[in-house]
Design brief:
- By secondary structure, this protein is mainly α.
- Helix content is 66%, strand content 0%.
- The chain has helices at 33-71, 76-81, 85-95, 115-126, 131-157, 160-171, 185-200, 204-215, 221-234, 242-250, 253-266, 271-278, 287-299, 305-326, 331-346, 354-357, 366-374, 377-400.
- It is globular and about 55 Å long.
Length: 406
């Protein structure tokens, strides 16, 4: 039986719109503007230890990368701001999207969702420096919003200590360096975390709006949308209301809008599917994942270290999801991480970025955060130190030694 420490400890709901979702605590009436600002200040003060811990983990990784990059005569800024996916997003910000499908493998920029490059382009108008610098600044800023949201979810479900530990564990993931690169993971995690927090506090329209923005950020935004829509529809079990129906309709709007726009741009209903096919990123039910797992674990006598790390991350994610179900996490969190896992594990696309694709799935770390919260201070210190140093090494190895994209 799971311990009571693993269950949500929030007070009973006081009547969310349209009723409450089983297992999801609801919020008091939303404050007005002055009250909202005060609530934000209180929340930020409450999250300060988590944000400081997050910054410490990421600065440690950045220092390790800077030292290693200097030894190898590599520049730090290009690594973080202008390589691999970051280059694609900067190209979209500079020149927009292509008008044609084409036939070249992994050469169609319509595979990349639009919100991040649009945000970079808009902010660059107001700031000095290049768009690459702006994109990196946007990413770092969004990473702190994401860390704040991760802490908010952990604290809401359990307590402040769990929230801090959850944030530090998320920062110390092996691919955590991506949180401070010109990628979309930080922006997407911020939307996902605050959407889930809005669901947990009964603010369904806020949750739906954030889910729609997540759907404009990454293909896996559909996981946030479904989680919010399920929560909204389940709230109807205790009485009909228009608000949950509106939230359920709004949540997937961003994802559907971009996928539909790609279809219109290419003149075919399956335009986005065709683009993904060009990237060899089709759904195969996990056949490619199983093949690569078998290759790394049982066939290749000298697999790449980075591929071993990706493999361990995938297997650990499956185990952690089982523990999350055992701990009876709120349904929206289980839906979000479950769909995220299905998308990542069921893809027939390239194998090596899959640890990065799972980075927004922070609720998977809740069982580990709960265990650490109950562990001795000595064990907690040793574990977190090892995790932070391991993350620093893996991040530097990922961008300096591994020859392909993170």
């Amino acid at each position: 039986m799971p311990s009571t420490d693993s269950r949500p400890t929030s007070a009973p709901p006081r009547g969310a719109p349209g009723g409450r979702v089983p297992g999801v605590p609801t919020a008091r009436r939303a404050p007005g503007a002055p009250g909202l600002l005060a609530a934000v200040r209180v929340s930020l003060r409450h999250a300060a230890p988590a944000l400081l811990g997050y910054a410490a983990v990421r600065v440690t990784g950045l220092l390790a990368l800077a030292f290693w990059a200097h030894r190898r005569h590599h520049g730090l800024w290009p690594i973080l701001a202008a390589q691999w996916d970051a280059d694609w997003y900067l190209g979209i910000a500079d020149h927009g999207y292509t008008h044609h499908l084409g036939t070249a493998f992994d050469a169609n920029n319509l595979a990349f969702f639009p919100l991040y490059p649009l945000l970079v382009k808009a902010v660059a108008v107001l700031t000095p420096g290049s768009r690459a610098t702006t994109g990196l600044a946007v990413t770092v800023g969004c990473s702190f919003l994401a860390a704040w949201g991760v802490h908010a979810v952990g604290s809401r479900l359990h307590d402040r200590r769990v929230g801090v530990l959850l944030t530090v564990l998320w920062a110390a993931l092996p691919v955590g360096l991506v949180q401070w690169m010109g990628y979309t993971e930080s922006l997407f995690t911020a939307f996902a975390a605050w959407a889930l927090y809005a669901v947990l506090t009964g603010r369904l329209m806020w949750a739906a709006s954030l889910a729609a923005l997540a759907g404009l950020t990454r293909p896996t935004g559909i996981a946030v949308a479904v989680a919010v829509a399920v929560a909204a529809l389940l709230s109807l079990r205790r009485g009909f209301s228009v608000r949950p129906l509106a939230a359920a309709a709004l949540a997937p709007a961003g994802w559907l809008a971009y996928v539909g726009w790609v279809g219109l741009r290419l003149g075919r209903w399956d335009g986005y599917i065709a683009v993904q096919r060009l990237w060899h990123n089709e759904w195969d039910g996990g056949a490619e994942t199983v093949r690569r797992l078998r290759e790394v674990l049982a066939q290749n006598s000298s697999p790449e270290l980075f591929l071993i790390m990706v493999t361990v991350t995938l297997l650990a994610a499956v185990v952690l999801y089982g523990l999350s179900v055992w701990d009876r996490q709120p349904l929206p969190l289980l839906v979000f991480t479950g769909i995220l896992l299905l998308i990542v594990l069921g893809s027939g696309g390239v194998y090596f970025p899959r640890a990065r694709f799972l980075l927004p799935g922070f609720p998977l770390l809740l069982p580990a955060a709960l265990h650490l919260a109950r562990a001795s201070r000595r064990f907690r210190s040793l574990f977190l130190t090892a995790a932070v140093l391991g993350s620093a090494y893996c991040g530097a190895y990922m961008v300096l030694v591994w020859p392909s994209a993170p």
